[in-house]
Design goal:
elongated, single chain
């Protein structure tokens, strides 16, 4: 029995994701700066943007941790089944 290969991200995908994140954050920040409103509204929108970003990072970490937890549990269960099958001799009474 072969174990499934875990897909990994390439360096180019990581760089593309980082650049995309930076560009979207910069675009929102520039939009807030040039919005024709007073300083209090800009400040509120800036803090809101930071809150959304930190919440997105936290959610991504929680999703990743849950995925890794189920993945590790699945591998442990598969290892137990493989061990039981390897030790099982159907011809013994």
């Amino acid at each position: 029995m072969s174990t499934p290969v875990q897909p990994t991200t390439t360096h180019a995908f990581f760089v593309q994701s980082a650049i995309s994140f930076g560009a979207s954050l910069a675009a929102c920040a520039v939009g807030i700066v040039y919005l024709p409103v007073n300083g209090w509204v800009r400040g509120f929108l800036g803090v809101s943007l930071l809150y959304v970003v930190t919440s997105a990072f936290t959610l991504a970490k929680c999703v990743r941790d849950r995925h890794e937890m189920t993945s590790v549990a699945g591998r442990v269960d598969q290892a137990r089944i493989d061990k039981l099958l390897a030790e099982h001799d159907p011809f013994t009474t």
